[in-house]
Amino acid sequence: MRISTQQLFNRGLDNILDVTSQLQKTQLQISSGRRVLTPADDPVASTRILQINQELSLIDQYKSNINLAENRLSLEDGLLDGVGEVIQRLRELTVQAGDGSQNADDKKFIAAEVQQRLSQLVGMLNTKDPSGEYIFAGFQGKQEPFQLNAAGAYRYVGDEGRRFMQIDANVSVAAGDNGKEVFVNIKSANNTFYTQASPRNTAEPPAIITQGQMIDQELYDAFYPEDMVVVFNDETDVVPPAPNYSIVQRSDGKPVLNNQRYATGQPIQVQGVQFEIIGSPQPGDTFFVQSSEKQGLLTTVERLAEGLEDYQDTPAGRQTLTDLLDSTLANFTNAETKLLETRSRLGARLNTIDDTKQLHEDVEVLTKEVLSELQDLDYAEAVSNLTLQNFVLQAAQQSYSRVTSLSLFDLL
């Protein structure tokens, strides 16, 4: 077999390139700390490494969701605790207002603090989370949930949604509670009502109806649960012509009051309740007085402040205030019970989050150990290989140099 000079050169060069490639790979492994650099290095391990990295990425996402949910729920818990403290102060003011030695001016001073506490409550209920969304707005996180309407009363304008966050493959938790469930849907101590203007009214600007006060609980209880509709009539229905209204039962249209002359802001008393309509309603405009077994926290505080402001030092006025204070104290108790129930559920969610978080941390540690076994480099073995490959490379280079320097002319 004849070996040409060209073959000798190619064979020697190939050996040097092969050893150099192995040396560079070992150097790259040492610098990266990874045994498997490409799928070709270990196809089975590469597949498993990819799966494990995906599992770790999913755990990271779960942990991110956990931190977000934990922060929101912790903030909500702190707010509910603050609301409870404000209710306690309002309870003290309610008891103080029942002191028979106080006159109307004293009660107005108490009403002023009640209004301050109302503003404090509204601020808490309209709190934003670190991402700038309102805690108690449901899905309407960008919209302030409790807003002052034209009648000067606070109304909930969020929705009843609850945001759930996935914290594990089969576990999700509510990352908050909507304000309607916590602060509006509170069982009332007595049968109560709320007022509302029809959205189809045509007056410009729209006339408004105040939220009203209970002035005779027994009379209203006898009428409950019927709703009332205030309907404005044509001015010619009374003589001389003037704005006037009638009140009918909503269920069957049965008259309650007929053709009552109207003056803006004048108290309207009917079936044990009192409210005012402010503005210039047009004929056909309607307003609703709807029965309810629930009364929101802000409504309770507003009615307390209004009752203290409007207190009349007469036997009837004193009885009306006594009834208001009694029902207010009972409604505060119901509100506090609602807060405790909400905080109890919130605590259960936080416990679930803590347990799941700990589970993810344990799984992450074990998963990273498996990943390390698959892809991390044995530095002792790698350095030994590097030394050997350096030696082989030097030998190949020297052999190549010596072989390529040989010539027949040296033997002549």
What does this structure look like?
- This protein is of the alpha+beta class.
- The chain has 3 domains: about 1-35 and about 390-410; about 35-185 and about 295-375, f41 fragment of flagellin, N-terminal domain (Up-down Bundle), CATH 1.20.1330.10; about 190-290, Immunoglobulin-like (Sandwich), CATH 2.60.40.
- Helix content is about 55%, strand content about 15%.
- The protein contains 8 helices and 13 strands.
- The protein has helices at about 5-30, 45-95, 105-125, 180-185, 215-225, 295-310, 315-375, 380-405, and strands at about 145-150, 155, 165-170, 170-175, 185-195, 210, 215, 230, 245-250, 255-260, 265-270, 275-280, 285-295.
- A 5-stranded antiparallel beta sheet has the order 5-13-8-9-10. Strands 6, 7, 11 and 12 form a 4-stranded antiparallel beta sheet that branches.
- Helix 1 (about 5-30) packs antiparallel against helix 8.
- One of its GO terms (molecular function) is structural molecule activity.
- It is found in: Bacterial flagellum; Secreted.
- Belongs to the bacterial flagellin family.
Topology:
Elements: H1 5-32, H2 43-97, H3 104-125, E1 146-148, E2 154-156, E3 164-168, E4 171-174, H4 179-184, E5 187-197, E6 208-209, E7 213-214, H5 217-223, E8 228-232, E9 244-249, E10 255-261, E11 267-270, E12 273-278, E13 286-294, H6 297-309, H7 315-375, H8 379-405
Antiparallel strand pairs: 1-2, 3-4, 5-13, 6-12, 7-12, 8-9, 8-13, 9-10, 11-12
Helix pairs in contact: 1-8, 2-3, 2-7, 3-6, 6-7
Question: Which short descriptors sum up this protein?
Answer:
single chain, 412 residues, alpha+beta, f41 fragment of flagellin, N-terminal domain, Immunoglobulin-like, 3 domains, five-stranded antiparallel β-sheet, four-stranded antiparallel β-sheet, 8 helices, 53% helix, elongated
